[in-house]
Each structure stands twice: as structure tokens, then as C-alpha cells.
Design brief:
- This protein is α+β, with helices and mostly antiparallel strands.
- Strands 4, 5, 6, 7, 8 and 9 form a 6-stranded antiparallel beta sheet that branches. A 6-stranded mixed beta sheet has the order 11-12-13-16-17-20. Strands 2, 14, 15, 18 and 19 form a 5-stranded antiparallel beta sheet that branches.
- Strand 4 (254-259) and strand 5 form a beta hairpin.
- The longest helix is centred in the N-terminal third of the chain and has 25 residues, at 114-138.
Amino acid sequence: MRKFRRNSNLLVTILFIFLMSGNLSFPPVALAEDELKPTAVDKQVSIIISTMINGEDGQHLLRKPLDDEISRRALKQFFKSLDPWKLYFYQSDFDEFAAEEANLDERIKSGKLDFAFEVYNRFLKRIDERVTMANKWIDSDLDYTKDEDLIIDQDSISYAKTPEEASERWRKRIKYSFLVLKGTKVEGDDAKEKLKRRYRAFRNRMRQLKSDRVLELFANAITTSYDPHTSYFSKTTYENFQISMKLNLEGIGASLQSEDGVTVIKRIVPGGAADKEGSLKVEDRIVSVGQGIEEGDLIDVIDMNLDDVVKLIRGKAGTVVRLGVMPQGKKEVEIYKITRERIELKDSEAQGMVFEQGTKPNGDPFQVGVIDLPSFYIDLEAAQRGDINFKSATKDIRKLIDDFSEKGVDAIVLDLRRNGGGSLAEAIGCTGLFIDKGPVVQIKGPFGNVDAYNDRRPGMAWEGPLVVVTSQFSASASEILAGAVQDYKRGIVVGDEATHGKGTVQSLINLWTHLNPRIKNPPNDWGALKITQSQFYRPGGDSTQKKGVEADIVLPSFSNHMDVGESDLDFAIEFDKVKSAKFVSNDQVSGDIVSELEKKSSTRIAKSEDFKKLESKIQDYLKEKDKKSITLNEKKFFERDLDTEKENEKALEEQVNGSQKIKRDFYLNEVMAITADYTKLLKESESVN
């Protein structure tokens, strides 16, 4: 396993840029015998992880030893993962555990996880104290006329040194929460009850965490001290990752979210079991779950960890789950019986639409085919067992291109704005649809050897004009495709100033196979390690690491100004270069063409009311982003333009989360206008030649 194998199926990580009751009587702080403790499996897993990442004998790209430096980094990472706003731990807690930081490397190497669980159990104790503290302030009379601020800059916050300091911090936090709720028309006893539920639910969720999830938190503090993308997946996380890659699961077809301890329906998958049954609606609340069609007891899931709720609802196709549901706006519980099905996550696969844009010389409109690709997915399990109908991004895009060709499209837009990566093999396969055979990506292994990974299939599925749309959320496999298209001069890259900048390759290794590489169909019980083993480079030799792929034509967007790039992450590997591979340019892009397209686009954007509004929202966002604190004076708090803030927040959310469907908005209109201009210029260039 020490060397990167050319033919292995490596998975490039998807960017995770990684969210009722009024009874408020709390049990006493857990006694020592009731505290969460590591299992024998947890200890064995920690030893395996340390072996895989440690030094020259490990498998990590950096070949860096698991030493005191990593230990110091890991301590801070662990505390940050538990308490990012420094609301729970005291400074004395951190100082006490920091005295042991030099020993963390030896502890995880030997499977001694007592330190991690001591920290976590202390965290649970502090949560109990802070929830009691929060409830006191929720029930008190707070002064909203006082001029004071709440610090909202994480880097400016330190741990509280005394109970009095912690209490004062929570007073301000509760005051801020009441003001926010008032802005949403939730006041009085309803606001008090909502806040009490919120903190009670958080306390219960943290206490429901199982030992393997605590191990996951601690192990990731160690692994992310090497680089941001090396991480341990517990069994549950591993299974969810596999679902995201193969785009199918067995269940009811609904996205769930925990809100103040209640499981809320956030999306119904079109065509799924819940959609067909018809009763369940978005914003309905699930309060209990039962198995089978027969009447019987249902399990109360209020305040239950969301992962555990999901496990109860998921199940084999053909079986029945009973849901106790409180429909939105009602207080009565209704029972819905839904027969589980195999759910195809259609909204997460490649989609295509054809739009008319501009005018050709003959007076007809250009036909532009738009493909939205959320990830480079593949059902690896089906592919490995020889199923010729396995799901993959390359196969789906080829079908869309064939359909576009039949419809006579003039150009294709490939939208990768919300594509955080996926399978390396699929990135190569998808790129090969747009170039003739040749190198797509170069990969440098941990021993410095550089290999080119080629598209070996002659010809292109699409030879015409191509525009690739990117953002700072376009990462990893997306950057492989965009970088190759740019290096080959095969098409125009449009969007944010640069993509995310993730230029490293991860292998996802089931920990069972580490002990027994020959085992077939290994269980998921021990989880998996996603480990950075290589770094990739464009055909021209540049890494995308930290730098990303720079757009030929930059369009205004929120994400241009967000701190979400690789360079904003802790311990990111540095940018470098290798020699250019040998490849033949398509010569479909030139400096003159790009300059002309930029000029035309700038003219349109300057006249566009939509882009002017966007620019105004961006300026508002930048002002808010730079703020270190927010007022807690009620009059001043509500003197702000709340409607504008809400509108800007909605626009920002749309930019971050993207649409589940191809949406012809002003941004896509500009992309298609650029595409039409590009198509014209290419035709003129061909005529001259």
C-alpha cells in the first residue's frame, strides 16, 4: 500500500465544506462510572490510523512523523471541533489538558484513548453547567436599552477564566438570541421555550454520541493536523459517503434536519416513497418512528441524535416504516405509513437543458446545451461486481451530449459551480468526452514519482464550443477537468476568480482491508480512512493546490469574496509545479478571443440592473463580514435594514447551496451570452483560417 497504484480506484474527496418537550429538569453531572469510555475496537482503530499516517512507513504524502508538532496542532484542533466559540470550556480546562499535548502522539499510537475521552467527558460536564447558566438568563429580565456588543469574531475570543466571566458571556449570547427571535416574530414565552429546547437538545445530542464518534472527532484532530483532507470516517459517516457517491439508498426519500431537538423534513425527493405516498410535507416534524405495518409502539425521537433517527427511518426496500408526524402549524400527531423504496438521488446527478440565446448570422437563435454536474459520482460497488448498468457521471454526461447533438445544439455549458469533487477516474472520463486522447492529469506520489493519467479513448463526444463555469466551491476533480480544458485551449473557463484550490488526491481505505487486503466485501464496522497520498497537476505542470484554476472571464459573485478556499484551511499543503506533459493543443482559445469576450461581458454587466443589485449586496456582505461585534441595544439592533439583510442572506444561501435544478437566472444568462459570443468568434476565426 505504500506506493500509489495507477489502476486502483481512488476517490477524491467531496468538499465538505462540513447542522420538544418543555421538561427542563436535568439529571446531575454523570458519575465517573457512567462516563463515556473507549471500546476495544476504538483502541484498535486508533492504532491502525496512527500506523497509516506515521512517517516514512506510513502512507501519507508528506511522510511526516506523528510527533510532538502534530500533537500540539491536534490539541487545538480537538478543542476547536468541540467548542469553536469557546463557550463551554474554561481556560483552566484547556491549560490542564495542554500539559499533556506532547504525549498525544504516543497515546494514539498505542491505542490509549483515555485523554480524548477525558476531554469529551469534561465537555459534557461543562455543557450541563452552561445549559443551567443559559436557562437562568432566559428566565431573567434582560436590559435591552444598554449599549453593549457581542463579539462575533472567533479569533478574538478566548476561553472564560471564571464562572462569572462565563456567565456574562452567556448573558450576552442569550440576549442576542432573543433579539434574533424577535426579528422573526417569536417573542415572550414562545421565545423562552424555543431557546430552552435548543440548549436542552444540544446537551442531549452530545450525550447521545457513541464512542466511535468521539474517536472520529479525536482522530480527525490528529489527521487534519497533517492536511485538511485526511480524515477518519466512522461507520455512519462512511456509509453516508458511500450513498453520496453511488446516488442511491433504500428509505423514504426525504432530507432531514435537526432543529432545536426536533427532526424536520427539509426536502422530499421527487419520485421517492414519501413523494408517492403524499402525506409528508416540507417543514413537517417527525416526533416518533415505528417499524412494520402493524400497529404498535413507536419510539419517541424528540431530542434524539439525527443519525439515530435516520437509522430508524432507513431500511430495506419493501418494508414499512410508521412515522409519528406533527404537520407544520399543527400540534396534533398523525401517523403515516410509508413503504420504503430504493431511492435514486436524481437531483444529485448530471442534468441537462437546452436554451435559446442570442442571434446567429442567419437570424436564428443559438441553441445552448447546459449541463449541471454536482459531483463526479460512481456506484463503485456495482462497477466492481460487473454490473454494466452501474451509475457514473461520465456515462450520464455522454447521454446528455448525445441528446444535445440530436437537438442540434451550437455550444455546451458545463456548470461545475457546486461541484466539490468525487471520483478521480470519473474526472478523467468526463474530461475525455471533450478532448481527444492525451494526458488529463499528472499525479505525484509520496516518493516524488510523477505519472500522467491519460484519456485513452480517441475522439470527442463533443467537439464544438465549450464553456466551463466554476466557483470557489469547485474543487478537486472539478479542477482537474477545468484545468485540462484550459491547458488544451479546448474551451473558456468562466466564473469566480479561481476555483477552490484542492490539488491533492485521497484514497478511501476501509480499515478492515488494512488488516486483510484480500478480504472481499469488507464490512463497514471499523469505518475508513480517507488519506492524502498524492498531489495532482495540470497537463501543463501547474498544481491546482492553493492556487486553483483561474477563470478566463471573471463574473461577480458572493463566493469570490468568501474565505472558503484551500488557502484558508489550516495546514494546507503548498503549491508547486512539475514538468509539462506532452499534449496537442486544440487552439480553440486565444488571447484575442478572451479579450474580446471580456470586453463584451463587461459592457453587458455594467448595464445590467441585476448585476448592479448583486454588487450592492456583495458590498453589504463585505461590511457585515468585516464586523467583529454586533450591538445588543434593541433600538440600534432593529435600526438596521433587516429586510435588506434577509434578502442578502437569501442570495448568499442560494450562492452557497446552489439550486437543485438548472435555473435560468441573470448569472446563467450572462454565461450563455458569453457562450454565444464565443461561438461567433470561433466561427469567424475558422473562416479566416
